[in-house]
Fold:
Amino acid sequence: MVMALSVCSCASTHYVSSSTGNDGNSGASTAAPWKTLAYAMAHVAAGDSVLLNRGDVWNEPLVISQNNLTIDAYPVGGTGPAPRITGYQALSGWSFTSDNIYKTTMSGTTACASSSGNVYFNGVPGQLVTASSGTGSPAHDRDFYCDGASPSNVYVYSQGSPSSYYGAVFVVTPSNSALLDTNGKTGLNIQHLALDYFDNYGVYVHGGSTNLTFANMSINGMVVGENRLSASTPGYKPYGFYVSNAGYATNVSIYNVDAHLNSVAGVRSSVVGDRLLEVWF
Structure:
């Protein structure tokens, strides 16, 4: 008797929508999408496709968790705004504490680091101080302090409600990190995404990542001027794409990408030697 065994290595397609999704859904159709990028990355397998809803916005990083993933937009081949991953988070709901210091709490579980946070006051970068009250607390226009909790409390100096005194106040999160992180991954195909408002990297390729393709994307830092990550070197970051020599990333292709409003470079690579980096705008 001859027995034939078949093993299915079937790849799955998952759908994610920040506006209509729920992480309790199956994620298997546009009618039952997941909500968060973090949940999606925790529940995909190598070889899967993850499709993000056009026009939706995520205020969280996309940290690639598996090899051989396809990340794209749906409806596939459709029109409309690209799925947007942003570090921009507007601050509101201020409450007075003392000595012209106002406090608010960031939404969700997002954090603003006490050592490297970035808060902007009507587009002008603020000055990070060392305490929420007493010595080292906000004492001048655009002074701010982040306590680093999850979610973080943000304290700012203001002569009256910050929303009235300054206009728009927003924080860039995650700070000192990347909006799209590929650490040691291989075989990725990522396209039709928009990334903006980051103070470090839009896309960070490192840890020996290889055979990656990024296409049809916009990567706009928006954060200009002195950067809290390197106060002694104004404009040191952000980078739109950064391909690191840490672990020696290889075979990285970047096609049809707009990378603007990044302080130093839209695309930067520290890779040297016989390692292919293709960039086509």
The longest strand covers residues 210-220. Confidence is low (pLDDT under 50) at residues 271-276. Residues 88-172 form one domain. The chain has two helices and 24 strands.
